[in-house]
Amino acid sequence: MRSGLHEECGVFGILGSDKASWDTYLGLYALQHRGQESAGIASFDGKKIHTYKRLGLVGDVFGDPDIFDLLPGKIAIGHNRYSTTGATTITNAQPLTVTFKEGWMSAAHNGNLINASSLRKGMESDGSIFSTTSDSEVVLHLIAKSQKATFEEKIVDALSKVKGAYSLLFLYDGKLYAIRDPHGIRPLSLGRKGDIWAVASESCAFDILEIEYQRTVMPGEFLVLEEGKQPSSSFPFPKPKHYAGCVFEYIYFSRPDSFVFGKAVDLVRRKMGRQLAREAPVHDADAVIAVPDSSNTAALGYANILKKPFELGLIRNHYIGRTFIKPVQGERDFGARIKYNAVPGILKNKKIVVVDDSIVRGTTSRKLIRMIRDAGAKEIHFRVASPPIISSCFYGVDTPRREKLIASQKSIEQIKEYLEVDSLAYLSLKGMQGIEELREIGLCMACFNGIYPVE
Amino acid sequence: MRSGLHEECGVFGILGSDKASWDTYLGLYALQHRGQESAGIASFDGKKIHTYKRLGLVGDVFGDPDIFDLLPGKIAIGHNRYSTTGATTITNAQPLTVTFKEGWMSAAHNGNLINASSLRKGMESDGSIFSTTSDSEVVLHLIAKSQKATFEEKIVDALSKVKGAYSLLFLYDGKLYAIRDPHGIRPLSLGRKGDIWAVASESCAFDILEIEYQRTVMPGEFLVLEEGKQPSSSFPFPKPKHYAGCVFEYIYFSRPDSFVFGKAVDLVRRKMGRQLAREAPVHDADAVIAVPDSSNTAALGYANILKKPFELGLIRNHYIGRTFIKPVQGERDFGARIKYNAVPGILKNKKIVVVDDSIVRGTTSRKLIRMIRDAGAKEIHFRVASPPIISSCFYGVDTPRREKLIASQKSIEQIKEYLEVDSLAYLSLKGMQGIEELREIGLCMACFNGIYPVE
Amino acid sequence: MRSGLHEECGVFGILGSDKASWDTYLGLYALQHRGQESAGIASFDGKKIHTYKRLGLVGDVFGDPDIFDLLPGKIAIGHNRYSTTGATTITNAQPLTVTFKEGWMSAAHNGNLINASSLRKGMESDGSIFSTTSDSEVVLHLIAKSQKATFEEKIVDALSKVKGAYSLLFLYDGKLYAIRDPHGIRPLSLGRKGDIWAVASESCAFDILEIEYQRTVMPGEFLVLEEGKQPSSSFPFPKPKHYAGCVFEYIYFSRPDSFVFGKAVDLVRRKMGRQLAREAPVHDADAVIAVPDSSNTAALGYANILKKPFELGLIRNHYIGRTFIKPVQGERDFGARIKYNAVPGILKNKKIVVVDDSIVRGTTSRKLIRMIRDAGAKEIHFRVASPPIISSCFYGVDTPRREKLIASQKSIEQIKEYLEVDSLAYLSLKGMQGIEELREIGLCMACFNGIYPVE
Amino acid sequence: MRSGLHEECGVFGILGSDKASWDTYLGLYALQHRGQESAGIASFDGKKIHTYKRLGLVGDVFGDPDIFDLLPGKIAIGHNRYSTTGATTITNAQPLTVTFKEGWMSAAHNGNLINASSLRKGMESDGSIFSTTSDSEVVLHLIAKSQKATFEEKIVDALSKVKGAYSLLFLYDGKLYAIRDPHGIRPLSLGRKGDIWAVASESCAFDILEIEYQRTVMPGEFLVLEEGKQPSSSFPFPKPKHYAGCVFEYIYFSRPDSFVFGKAVDLVRRKMGRQLAREAPVHDADAVIAVPDSSNTAALGYANILKKPFELGLIRNHYIGRTFIKPVQGERDFGARIKYNAVPGILKNKKIVVVDDSIVRGTTSRKLIRMIRDAGAKEIHFRVASPPIISSCFYGVDTPRREKLIASQKSIEQIKEYLEVDSLAYLSLKGMQGIEELREIGLCMACFNGIYPVE
Predict the structure, then answer these.
(1) Global confidence as pTM
(2) What ipTM does the predicted assembly reach?
(3) pLDDT tens, C208-219?
């Protein structure tokens, strides 16, 4: 359960489908967990790019079937966005579609450029204007300004100037371009069904369309998709010393049914729970419970190693509705109680292991634990299936400032006291790094160890 | 996972709270799973009854905090409704508020009267008109026509004429009246926090308000709640031979964190899974998976007995949104894929036990199984944590007609073939009846055995 | 310009049209000026009555063409409602559809029953319940209770018990019933196009459908319309000494392009202006202006007699929008300025006659006059094309209580001072009564002379 | 009555008001007739510019009072937009707010740049991107690229490169900048109330705020408004040979209660009607009617000269509602009948002069005339209070292509036959040019004579 840690978006692109915008809609629907603020689709009809985006959930934004008539063409890209700022606004919704000297282009971006601000300042000095505060607009400016001949070269030229994390999709003149940053920080996968090719942040977007998952797009790989052709692949930038896929994709962001960075999320997440059990067992526990739904897999792994019963001790309410109003004051633990309820029949007089995927600020964990205690748990042993978060992220994860990260301010013992649990343990960094699948990839663990892949 | 079996409503009432309508809103929110078509609240301000009801989810219907200013008073009742008919209409939304010779009264009803239609015809013959097609209006007519002196007596007089299932709440002149039918078909629980008293279909509605669950309201029990007094309890009708609580509350309708008929849903549901494991084990299964979320508990019980790993092999998408549009044609298994996705990492080349809570028509189960098969499962053993449904319900559960119930038309072997599974087993009726908690209550199992408690 | 005087509704019914509900929608649209709070349509498909009603303007309530699929059948009635109470609520929206011993019936009512409350109390004593506070529900109860054999007789039986104003439409079993009260207080007209028959509060509802206006329905006349037959007409009640059509239909309520009570509104309204000019001329006026749009016709008549130029000295803003928010405090004359603006080019240094159709409270007139003064008018002579309103209405017009009627509290001289005009004159009651068309009808002028047609 | 001729927007700006965004809302409300597609406001709070814009009417876009909390500051600009393209989209809504090297700026534009496309192409060649298709974005680019030192100089530098029509407002760092193009094609007026200064397309926007109209902003005049200072005025561009205010502001676009180009619209429009009467009288006409509301003033002028009665022979329905659905097929003259109804009492057996402000395609006029004929008019003499439109507009008026302009394709005699009228006459160009007020201004009459002020 997270409050204070958010991924910023999901991207999806498809080529060769007779109902490209409809397929993109379903792809975005499957990626809804990556961003709930706005949703948008851009399609190319052979002449121009059509764009439709609104604030809201995918299912609501595209709730009128007539919208798809406004998005014709066999090629489309889409984007779900999570707001990182308090202000909810349509301005930064994506895809971002503009005209430039060669006509129309559109971009959908997952990630965060760390030099966007200085690039922007530089271009403003040269007389450019910016309509949004999104990094993607910086990239579009760079492409438009590139002196290179082809759009493909312009993209490479533009991205050679940026630093940071990106999985970027572009739509231009009948082709779909997809590229991951050289460190491979944000994920992107490739799928196929006959002559239809698709790219998506996670492979679960393919499943809903019965598109077959092919493989991960590689760090630094640049794919050009064109109808009637095999995808062309190239690696325009030098290979960095280390790859740096965001480990939080495995811990929390991605759906367990997805492949991300080429590995099954479910499997990795399970192994984290198992390793945690090995490192910090609670041998005489009566039950292991998860904070649903994000911690279910790790909790299962934990319970499995210790041969303890996995139980559904917390029930999550899924019917929150769009305009649910929360009390502004006074009601203790209210936020947690709106989302969860503890099950006394499971918890009463029991020694409980609660497995959560991570702790950010600790405020919601504390409320949850109080609910579990109120439901009668005799002992609560809190286990976190990832290491303590001690550093903020600069690559697209909306972490709070360092001072708000409980693990950067308190010792484990102090956190244990703050949470009012009987014991507390995190998965060790070493334990996490030891997971075979993760070793094969090359991951960024800056939030745990402060080592940033991009200077 | 159900398509074709629905409970019709949730009711909530509260007395003595300074923010009675707000509390009712939260109570209804926790009962949202019992009905998503409409939500409504009626409150009494000392003089008259105010009513607000609309089509939609609780959080959306009451999305504007100003609404609560329109619902003043320290006593309120509320209602969530599930539409049993195709037509979505506000006419039948509850609470139903009317004036009669003594002033204002309002009712919220969970259940179904089997003689409503004949009572209605009789009253129409005498010149009455009906504005809705809801059973509750029949009851309000009967109360208004009663010659008895007090409102309490009028209720008893009215209900002495009806047959069927009801958990009914009434608001009248500063008192909250709550009554269950003598057979106790639909549930109702009593809660308390200091001077505040509340009644609700399930106890989870108390938890969100930190109201303490007291006990079930008994079959046939008539509670009168009045500010500053202890609830008065009476049993105005003769005790029937058998109680007949709806067993489907334990199988599917209620949230696992609730107490229903005085028993923890979670516990009973678990025992069903355990008994199923004893009756129909799959000894060499690689994993047990549930159809989330309703079958999770039973699947856990099943896995637990057989010491097999419980796995999250199906992922449920919870972001469907209000206006999600579905394809009208052609896409195979689409409905299932919108709600669920199978996790290949868990299923591939595995011998899988799938536990579902029940099968109604079988159409969705078939789609789900196909998804699991497509994800690579080697063998699929389908286990149903309740007996075959062979009869329709007349007490408020929206079952399809008998001919649509797959188990009334096909043998187990035929169902197995239809579902394309490697083996199929249901929990035996006897096995279910043997669960200790259920033996203590007295339940209606007409859907399984055709024996109806009310003639 | 009126604030504080409102007609309560418009009714429309049609029979024999293949798109009866669509036609009713357009008819209601043309009658929108008679009520803007809610709109509704009920149609009969040969078996049952379908009803759709919502708060809002006709064009918004029926803004989705799919709605008409929910309203099948060749016969329909519709209703626009103006809220007479502050609370905006759907409960009292019409048509009111109920079931009774003979099946489905629906009613749409324009008018006000003066003994509704006592009838209601009587029926409540006998055990009836009421779901709305509308008079129509009383009538439906009376019909349902009637022992007469046919629906036609039941209507007559029911209406024999009520006193007051009504133009009532009923839908029952393939027939459309229309009846006006014996005094003929509220209007109703009959139209025809081939085999299609229609009734409407005003004939402008026929024009939009190219239905030909036939004649007024007579006071006390009871029409039964049935497909394939000529309308049957009867007069079930004794003829009263005097007819009493509401004179305000000619002064303000009806559209000038309508026939009402068999006379062209435009013509009568014009004659009021002319008579006013004869009675209270301003011989050296520079211009005559109206308070648009309701006073335009009378002002033209006034200007015409005096051979003075009619000018557009006030401009009305028609784009108010549904949710226009008004300042809650402080801004002087704001309400008037939102609706009107004065034209300095016409008014500056001029001696102006302002013709208004009536004065209720006088507050808005005062604000308007101040605007005209601010725009530079040298002299303002206020002329009112109807007599002083001294009594409240009990037949469906939402007049304020007597104490709020400026003419019941102040002398003409005092009103002149309050309004800050250079002179003030009303049309005399005698002058109004002298208009030939009005003499032919028999009108209620109780608001001017306190003589009520129904005791 | 116009279908096919539209002005594109209204602009409003205010400085020095404690409720600048609220005032802008009311100003836009008064300018609603200039554009109904979208409305927007940008305000400057001392640090940054806040922008809120949506599709819809002003009253609906700003229907929630909380919006004004999102628009703080004492200085604001606003914009109403009329869509010139079929596609309704938020992309081009204004004000357009961007960041550039000096920080935030925002613009609101009424007009049309004829070299926008080539400027845009040039900037695209240099690597610029465009997020909208609006001319304003071109201007903002030019400002951002300007090497001049001050914002004021940058504006002048930028506008020195553009050709066409503009009344432009800019918000930048605490100042409000307002400038009209040198030919003065689109209007702009200056108002004041104490220390508050305002600019608006028409003076009616001042009246609603009780701001006093000061004067027209002159062609080519550049006003800089700053709190606590008098407006600074300059004329940065050479004076052209002729001024060229759009004559259609007087014929149709502006509200009659406004001052535009320093003259009262009402007065000019009246004189057009008078001149038309002198040129093309119908001596034995029974009545003169207008096509409401836009032709009322001209019709009055016409009737006045001929001493014929002005009558309200057509009634306009003002309650159309946001989502009014029109029949897609088949119903003859439907569009006209939804908006207008003819009054038989006035028209029957009469010789009628119908005065309209202009004819574009002629299709709606034809429908209206048929309605008047159906209402019984014996003779219909159509008089148009402006000359035949023979050329399209390039300065911001949405005229159809030349081939669709009936007067460019048919002779007067042919138009008369097409419209099925007994006689037809237009105001002569010479007659219009002879109106004293118009002679004083310098106007563009390109739509009548094909002489364009800007090459």
Answers:
(1) 0.89
(2) 0.87
(3) 999 999 999 999
